[in-house]
Design brief:
- The structure is a single chain.
- By secondary structure, the protein is mostly helical.
- The chain is built from 13 helices and no strands.
Length: 327
């Protein structure tokens, strides 16, 4: 029995190593193509990491880490270490966690938040590595980039055939927007990373299903129910922003913290609003193209409507009230 068990285990290990090597080669090819052709960048940021996660689903953490290390070394040789850091390291680490999460049946919240935190850390490492390799001051580079972008946009506004007063109002609004973005950059980045992690997890689940490696299904957007405390977080952020002046607190750092708290609460409430809207549209049998058009129009014309819609749904459960069968 010992010899038979050892033989089976040896065959399994051989198969795992062969599949890992094969998928590592695919990861390298996808990364090289995605890093070389900007229009195909999703190959390096979504498809290749999904392959890393698939290895973790099939064979575990050790093999997915091995695939990431092998791919990192080969891409470093082909395109340079900096490109390898910005592609393999930046996206492989979150995909390793996603593969481990699917394999160990993590909850949906844990499956999204842990890769999001990993992507946040690897992004910081990528920025620091880039600054170190190019021997530049990261803070100075970001400041120069901000000034160049503002100058380009302001020049575009000034070239428009508009009244001087309207141009001045636009420019002031743009400068205010840039100032707010700089103060909210951390929360913006975290929200963007969360969306990226969700897309990567959904694509990984799709690839796993197509390769006969079924994993627990991720809930569709229309079935999301965000916790009601998100509305409280949004309210706390507004209280810090607008209430600090009434109690004599004139601290910009304190106000910046309040703005980030409010943005995070608005992001969660907005997701709940999007989920509620899609659920109601589905209950009325609206086709997918029309749902996309409706969501796009609302996002372009009234993006705050998603936040408002989400808050109302949290307290009044609009889904059951507007459901076609119960209306």
């Amino acid at each position: 029995p010992f010899i038979v068990g050892w033989s089976i285990m040896n065959q399994t290990n051989t198969r795992a190593m062969v599949e890992t090597a094969f998928l590592s080669a695919i990861i390298v090819v996808l990364t090289v193509v995605g890093a070389s052709v900007p229009l195909l960048s999703l190959l390096a940021t979504i498809v290749a990491p999904a392959a890393t996660a698939l290895i973790g689903i099939r064979w575990g953490l050790r093999y997915s880490c091995s695939a990431a290390v092998v791919a990192f070394i080969i891409v470093s040789i082909l395109l340079g270490p900096l490109t390898a850091v910005g592609t393999i390291l930046m996206y492989a680490v979150p995909s390793i966690f996603i593969g481990q999460g699917f394999r160990n049946h993590w909850s949906v919240l844990k499956l999204i938040l842990i890769p999001t935190a990993a992507l946040f850390v690897t992004t910081v490492i990528t920025l620091l590595a880039s600054a170190g390799v190019m021997s530049v001051d990261l803070q100075t580079s970001l400041h120069n980039l901000d000034e160049e972008l503002q100058t380009a946009i302001i020049s575009t506004v000034q070239e428009q055939s508009l009244p001087a007063e309207q141009k001045e109002a636009y420019i002031k609004q743009l400068q205010l927007s840039f100032e707010q973005i700089k103060r909210l950059i951390i929360t913006y980045a975290f929200c963007a990373f969360a969306v990226t992690s969700y897309i990567l997890a959904r694509f990984t689940a799709y690839i796993a299903k197509r390769t006969n490696n079924p994993v627990q299904p991720l809930p569709s957007i229309s079935s999301w129910h965000m916790p009601i405390w998100a509305a409280g977080v949004l309210a706390i952020g507004f209280i810090i922003i607008y209430g600090s002046s009434f109690v004599g607190i004139q601290n910009e750092l304190f106000k910046t913290i309040g703005m980030n708290i409010a943005l995070f609460g608005a992001f969660v409430c907005g997701l709940n609003g999007l989920s509620c809207l899609l659920s109601i549209l589905e209950s009325y049998g609206i086709s997918r193209p029309f749902k996309i058009i409706i969501v796009a129009l609302l996002y372009v014309m009234m993006p705050i409507s998603f936040v408002t819609f989400g808050i109302i749904d949290m307290f009044l459960d609009l889904r059951s009230r507007f459901n076609q069968r119960g209306y």
